[in-house]
Amino acid sequence: MLSHATARDWLIPYADGMLAADERRRIDGHIVGCRACAAELREVRELNLLLVTLPPAPATSVAPFWLKLQAVLPQRRTLRIPNFVGYRRAGLACAVALVAVLATAATAFAAPSALPDNPLYPVKLIEEDVHLALTPANDRLTVQLQLAGERLREAQVMAANHKPRLAESSLRAYTIIVDDAAVSLKSPATLQATKDALHALRAKLGAVERENANRDDDVAAIKQLVATAVDALDRIEQQESATAPTLTVGEQATPDPTPAAPPKPTPRATPTDDGDRHGRD
Questions:
Q1: How far apart are CA 15 and CA 31, in angstroms?
Q2: Where are the domains of the chain?
Q3: Per-residue model confidence as pLDDT tens digits over 10-57
Q4: Where are the alpha helices (DSSP H) in 54-134?
Q5: Which residues contact residue 36 at a Cβ distance below 8 angstroms, ignoring those fewer than 6 apart?
Q6: d(CA 47, CA 53)
Q7: Separation in Å, CA 85 to CA 88, 92, 95, 158, 191
Q8: What φ, ψ does residue 244 adopt, rounded to 5°?
Q9: Which residues, 6 or more positions from 30, have their beta carbon under 8 angstroms from its beta carbon?
């Protein structure tokens, strides 16, 4: 059943003949029982007839009307837009600088763990050179031994990843670092710490050799470099043994003998009066 509100909405399309046949039948059934909708439908039809009988409106020019309206309206103020070109350039420069700073910081944090096959590896080497240059002379040997150990770690990883050329490059860099530290190794400030560091380097050289031996194509150049490095460590340790201070037991001081007391003189016997008398008799 069609509701009254829907029927009222459909009256104008119904009068204009725009409804479908089933919708028209529903409106017809509603109008029969609804006087209000029937009266409104008559008004709609009368309005349609009136609109049809009206003469067409004369053509009106818009230009005169618009000119009169402009004369009445207030004068339009010119809106001055500030020039933001300078601000844009400054903002762009700040953004570029910020991006550069962030990129540099990210590179600095990522570079220490970079390997020879990483694009950040040159940055790592530069950071190491700067750090070594700023290190005091007393701590320079410690830093050099740490860098030597890092080169051996890189060589081990490169050998395990089947990159023999990069492994050879790391081993040659290790040799250069040890040669530079040779003078300091002759008289280290901390003997025990230096021995421990050399022992760790020897262990890492063994790890590089094992990784190289595990390859199907054992690289002779890596094997030769490792052997040369081991010989260099042997010579360094022999020099340390030769120059190591020995414990000298000093001579115990012997106390001076106590001087003997001089002998006391023996008193001579004094003759008595009786003896004298017997002698005279």
A1: 12
A2: 4-53, 109-242
A3: 888 888 888 888 888 888 888 888 888 889 989 988 888 888 787 776
A4: 62-72, 85-110, 121-133
A5: 4
A6: 10
A7: 5, 10, 15, 52, 66
A8: -70, 140
A9: 2, 4, 7, 37
